[in-house]
Amino acid sequence: MSSNKQRPSILDKSLSRGKSEVSITAYALLFSEMVQYSHNRVQSVSDLHNKLSELGERVGVRMVELLFVRERNYKRETKLLNVLLFVKGTLWKSLFNKEADKLDRATDDERTFYLIEKEALVNRFISVPRDKSSINCAAFMAGVIQAVLNCTGFPAKVTALWHKGTTFMIKFDDAVLIRDKQLEGR
Amino acid sequence: MRANDPKKVSGELFTLTYGSLVAQLLKDYENVDDVNRQLERMGYNIGMRLIEDFLARANPGRCYDLRDTADKIQQAFKLYLGVSPSIGSWSPGGDEFSVVMETNPMAEFVELPEHCLGLRYSNILTGVIRGACEMVQLEVMAWFIADQLKGDNMTEIRVKFVKRLEDAIPAGED
């Protein structure tokens, strides 16, 4: 074991500029293995969604750091709508090379927002058997969004639903809305 | 923003997704050897499917010897991971060679902590090579002999030809 070799410190390397690309096939096959791996270790659909969401959260945590250093010049978002626009725009563009299709607010609940993506990348290569039609592997992306919101100070719960393609239902904690209203009142 | 090539996805998304998988495996398995094994196995599954995509897309034609095979592996790294490894260090018998990467896209943003020095972080790649080759009737062994995550200058995978596989005759036929 080469334990006497100097292991490189990640902080000594310059930050990636984010222009690298891999084939979509490579990603699809990797994701497929991750879904199968998770699927073998769960008993229920909601457990599977939780596992996938957990996998996505690790990605989200790191994307926040990466994007705020690289693209936002270390300035964090303090307003609710702006952080949602960050998710719809900057985050989505970095991950999926496009903005999310639509951002809506629930009419009956001011804590709930809907981020709509007609064709979620991760679902493009997944076919769900008819008897398990509630499985939505975009739970992975929901995890990414959830981690991004939690890490930027806007705690929320995000779930992926089959609606208009894929709809991510974002439900913020009450405290977030209260604080945002106070900010506006200023 | 890069030009929208529908056949490509963000390298960072790929790297972070893979990292999340490795982190999950480290959580699920008690020891690092099991993680290494699991990564290799998942790579094997991927390789078995990847080869079909490769044959369809690159239309590479038959390999007549191991050098052809090495060439195709090099092509595949470029096609799927966007890196250009070099092939070298051929054994005198011509049955072993190295795939050498100056940058490993899977390991972007990665630092190995003290307690995981036995982890072969990118071990999924060795499985991909093994699985892909098996589907074209070639049994190979693939393993890492150098890793930049561990302080080496390059990341290097050794590939060794074991044997040609005969098509298995289905039971009941002669």
UniProtKB/TrEMBL annotation, chain A:
CDD domains, per the entry: TRAPPC5_Trs31
Subcellular localization: Endoplasmic reticulum; Golgi apparatus, cis-Golgi network
Cellular component aspect of the GO annotation: endoplasmic reticulum; TRAPPI protein complex; TRAPPII protein complex; TRAPPIII protein complex
Database matches in InterPro entries: NO_sig/Golgi_transp_ligand-bd, TRAPP-I_su5, TRAPP_component
Origin: domain of life: Eukaryota
One GO biological process term: endoplasmic reticulum to Golgi vesicle-mediated transport
Keyword GTP-binding: no
Keyword annotations from UniProtKB, A to Z: Endoplasmic reticulum, ER-Golgi transport, Golgi apparatus, Transport
Principal location class: endoplasmic reticulum
The keyword ATP-binding is annotated on this UniProt entry: no
SUPFAM superfamilies: Ligand-binding domain in the NO signalling and Golgi transport (SSF111126)
Physiological role: May play a role in vesicular transport from endoplasmic reticulum to Golgi.
Subunit structure and binding partners: Part of the multisubunit TRAPP (transport protein particle) complex.
Family recorded in the similarity comment: Belongs to the TRAPP small subunits family. BET3 subfamily.
Name of the protein described by the UniProt record: Trafficking protein particle complex subunit 5
Native organism: Petrolisthes cinctipes (Flat porcelain crab)
TrEMBL record, chain B:
GO biological process, one term: Golgi vesicle transport
Keyword list, A-Z: Endoplasmic reticulum, ER-Golgi transport, Golgi apparatus, Transport
InterPro entries, alphabetized: Bet3, NO_sig/Golgi_transp_ligand-bd, TRAPP_component
Superkingdom classification of source: Eukaryota
One GO cellular component term: Golgi apparatus
Subcellular location per the Swiss-Prot or TrEMBL entry: Endoplasmic reticulum; Golgi apparatus, cis-Golgi network
Keyword Secreted set for record: no
Keyword Cell division part of the UniProt annotation: no
Gene3D superfamilies: Trafficking protein particle complex subunit 3 (3.30.1380.20)
Oligomeric and partner information: Homodimer.
Protein family according to the UniProt entry: Belongs to the TRAPP small subunits family. BET3 subfamily.
PANTHER family found in the cross-reference section: TRAFFICKING PROTEIN PARTICLE COMPLEX SUBUNIT 3
Function as written in the Swiss-Prot or TrEMBL entry: May play a role in vesicular transport from endoplasmic reticulum to Golgi.
Protein name: Trafficking protein particle complex subunit
Native species: Petrolisthes cinctipes (Flat porcelain crab)
